Amino acid sequence: MVKIAATGIGIVSPSGIGKRQFWANIKSGRSFVKKITRFDASKYPSHIAGQIDDLEKYSHVSERLLKKIDAFSHMALIASEMALQDAGIDIKQEDPNLVGIFLGNAIGGWLYAETELRDLYIEGREGVSPYMASAWFPAAPQGQVSIYYGIKGFSKTVVADRAGSLMAIGYARKVLAKDKLNMILAGGMEAPVTPYALLCCNTYGALSKNNTNPQEAYRPFDKKRDGFVIGEGAGIMVMESVERAKSRAVKPFVLISGYGTTCDAVDRINPAEDGKELARAINMALADAGITPEKIDYISLDGLAVDIWDNSEAAAIKSVFGSRTESIPMSCPKSMFGNLLGASGAVDLIITILAMEHNLIPPTINLEEPALNGLKFIGKEPKEYKINKALIISRGRGGINSALVVEKYEN
Amino acid sequence: MKEKIKNILVTLLKVKPEELKDDVSLQDGIGVDSTEMVETVIALEKAFGTKLNPKEITKFSTINDIEKVISSKIGR
After folding, report:
1. Domain locations in chain A as residue ranges
2. Which of A50, A318, A338, B43 is within CB 3.0–4.6 Å of A229 for a Cys-Cys bond?
3. One-character DSSP codes across A40-101
4. Could you tell me the end-to-end alpha-carbon distance of chain B, in angstroms, rounded to an integer?
5. Helix-strand-coil percent breakdown of chain A, rounded to 5?
6. What average pLDDT does chain A have?
């Protein structure tokens, strides 16, 4: 099978924009969760988030385009540009028919949509921007990225709640492995820090209400956990075959070597308590990568900080890794900047790539007293460690499971 | 009137004033698309207090054409 690599990284997150700044903040264990300041959110049960305040500073997008797109497309455009630059790709030199875009998103572009819907009811139909129709929907960023670069190959937006972006990356790998495209921009984007989106997330009932101590709110697997915190941003990578990377004299960061996905099929909100289907997804990813569980030396956790989600995730890990569960280091670095929903899996993968590059396991802040035994959590202190093969877990509402295996690239 | 039309386009479409030439179509001059035209026609209607038929002002219109259409409508 054709080996598929990640060769460029673009990251837009509350913990930093651009991989250097992002990694510096991740390894320092600093929290970027704070009270929402974009609008008055004080009456929401949970009114804290990982918010990006300086997007314009990093933007290459014209004002003319900005007024037509939602923040999630803006984030995707910035992350795509960073990924292409990082991979050393001049898109004008590519055959546009053989370049694709695979992105994950959960909720669409509500900052734009809410403003226009309000105008619809106040001013009538003429008060609504004609761009509304093309700005809000989950595939809008895919369209904007394709227009911006003239990309014309097979592309797809995956909507699978929080599992969307890891699923998009798994899908992209499959398409590349079949040699259908030369390269793909793959990842995800999400902008949920808006009045209505925040309301929906609150209604879900799984957000932390620790508004008085935002930086301590997101506590995956900790005894004092009370839910997750939302965040906004985008994580996009350049993916291509190892052969093609070699022909461009570019060293891949990692091989995307295996992917698995399953559904729990039990409840519209919660996952199955036993974690059996998640375990099956993990086993599928391992089999796809052609490795046994013994080879995994780091696990990037989904870590929703909700009892049933954390417990079922732990159950799945224990069933796959058996007694090794006690010795494989695992962490959930999104505790520092929030859960980027449809972009969370892509960002977890980017963190894992950077962790492999720097031989350092990123911390899980606020994990002080584990609620579960028998797992080797990396808490608030990062750990020096050489990672060769890692597993990334990403799950969505209603029991969507996805698992991805990555390997450090060695010549 | 011409200046008012240009100001509307500059503010609305975020283009530079120097990009707007009196006798070049909006499509050729600033690459306007159909959605931008919808927005433009609505803004012109509001600014000049008149109804405009979308067939009268299109992306192939120049600033001079637009001025002519609006003048004939509002009798100036």
Report:
1. 4-247, 259-405
2. A338
3. --TTSS--EEE----GGGG----HHHHTTS-HHHHHHHHHHHHHHHHHT--GGGS-GGGEEE
4. 9
5. 40, 20, 40
6. 96
CATH 3.40.47.10 fits A4-247, yes or no: yes
Residues of chain A with Cβ-Cβ distance to B15 below 8 Å are: 64
Backbone angles phi, psi at A127, to 5 degrees: -85, -10
Domain range summary for chain B, segments of one domain joined by +:
2-74
Residues in Cβ contact with A262 at an 8 Å cutoff, skipping those fewer than 6 apart = A277, A278, A280, A281, A284, A401
Residue A373, classified by CB atoms within 10 Å of its CB into exposed (0-12), middle (13-18) or buried (19+), is: exposed
d(CA A7, CA A137): 29
Q: What is the phi-psi region of residue A197: left when phi exceeds 0, alpha when psi lies from -120 to 50, beta otherwise? A: alpha
The fold for domain A259-405 equals Peroxisomal Thiolase; Chain A, domain 1 (3.40.47)
C-alpha B55/C-alpha A68 separation (Å) is 24
Q: What pLDDT shows up at residue B76?
A: 59
Q: Identify the residue whose tokens are 């797809």.
A: A156
d(CA A110, CA A307): 29
The SS3 assignment for A411 reads coil
Domain B2-74 = CATH 1.10.10.10: no
Compute the nearest-CA separation of A130 from chain B (Å): 6
Cβ of B14 within 8 Å of Cβ of A63? The answer is yes
Which tokens sit at A316? 């799945």
CB contact A130 to B (< 8 Å): yes
Quick: pLDDT tens for A99-156.
999 999 999 999 999 999 999 999 998 889 889 999 999 999 999 999 999 999 999 9
User: Token digits for A7?
Assistant: 């060769």
Q: How many residues does chain A have?
A: 411
Secondary structure element (H or E) that encloses residue A135, with its range: helix A132-135
Closest residue, chain A, to B13 (C-alpha): A64
Q: Give the pLDDT confidence score for residue A411 in this predicted structure.
A: 76
CA atoms within 13 A of residue A131's CA, in its CB half-sphere: 22
Smallest CA-to-CA distance from A278 within A258, A266, A262 is with A262
User: Which pLDDT belongs to residue B53?
Assistant: 85
Angle between helical axes of A140-149 and A71-87 (0-180°, round to 10): 50
